[in-house]
Amino acid sequence: MKMFSLRMLLVLSLLVGLGSAGAVPAEAARTAPAGVRVEQWTGQDFTFLALPAEKQSTGYEIFAAEQATRGLEGDRSLRIPYAEHVGKQVVVTKIVPFAAGGRQKEYMVYMTVKETDEKLVGRTMQGQLEGLLLSADLRNARQQFLGKTVYPKFRELTGLYVPGRNSTPPASVSTPIGAPVVVLDVYAGNKSQEPIWLIVDVNGEKAILPIAYSWTNMPIQSWTETPPWQNALFMKNPRISLGGSDALWQKIQAGNVEEGMSKEQVQLSWGNPSRREKNDSVWIYGTKQLQFRGDVLYSIATISESQPGSYEDLL
Fold it and tell me: How far apart are alpha carbons 76 and 73 in whole angstroms?
């Protein structure tokens, strides 16, 4: 049984979202930060996410300060109950690096709970501390997206429970890829890798569009120069910015690719390739090999060596 129903999660997230929506300088809101590295967390505020129950027991290494030594030596039974801290804000007071075997560097993260002054100590795993959202990311996301029209890169979004309207949320809300939706609100979500929920209106239905606003608390090898929310949405109408006829966009929606598509159009249709070769000019999807000239797809071939999975698995 999940510890948090979607209804409880919505209430908790609403409180977190409203409590964190302070004023943000306009310049900071316009440009998403690249991310704050763990060694730079001292003085930063974080918010505990409402992780699903099954996620609360994996990858979560936070202890009360007085029990941290025993806990960090391997007694995981001393981990603080995650549910007691959902929605609370902490300020990081100290970061201490340590060797975790091999060349992997990990960190001891010392935190103080703002409401109670409780002292906590966390240990990163692969450079991340499960369940923490940089509070500034939530504030900046609200400033940037609230009330705006965005264009999701997905065919379906998770439905949202609305009090007085539906007893249970719809499993999903369908929408054409790149179709406009309006952001109604911004909450703290329930996924460490996509910790922010944009609540959007899809033809009168409310749905959840999860995003990451910065690369903070994400694997360093995944960082790029572009803000991570671009993995989930366009800020401008892609039918204009990427071009293409209505027929081409219907093919993208149906999960088809054809010669002449751009790399981004292919990616919208089939998702990320299983691998890229020859300086990104060859993309592999299962047994399909796509070759590009510059940004344009010019060849689709079936390769003899079958790769695990298929493009449907990669969407």
Answer: 9
Is pLDDT at 28 greater than 50 in this prediction?
A: no
Domain enclosing residue 56, as ranges: 36-133
Determine how many CB atoms are found less than 10 A away from the CB of residue 6. Answer: 19
Residue 8 has pLDDT above 50, yes or no: no
d(CA 37, CA 25): 22
CA proximity to 50, closest of 94, 98, 96, 17? 17
First vs last Cα of the chain: how many Å apart? 28
Give the domain-ending residue among 108, 133, 158: 133
Task: Judge whether 282 lies within some domain.
Answer: yes
Report d(CA 207, CA 202) in Å as an integer: 7
Convert 238-264 to b/e letters by CB count within 10 Å (16 or more is b).
bbeebebeeebbebbbeeebeeebbbe
Measure the CA–CA gap between 167 and 227, rounded to whole angstroms. Answer: 36
- Sign of the four-CA dihedral 182, 6, 132, 92: positive
Q: Mark which of 117, 133, 149 sits at the end of a domain.
A: 133
- Average pLDDT over the chain reads 81
Question: What is the total count of domains within the chain?
Answer: 2
- The answer to whether residue 262 is domain-embedded is yes
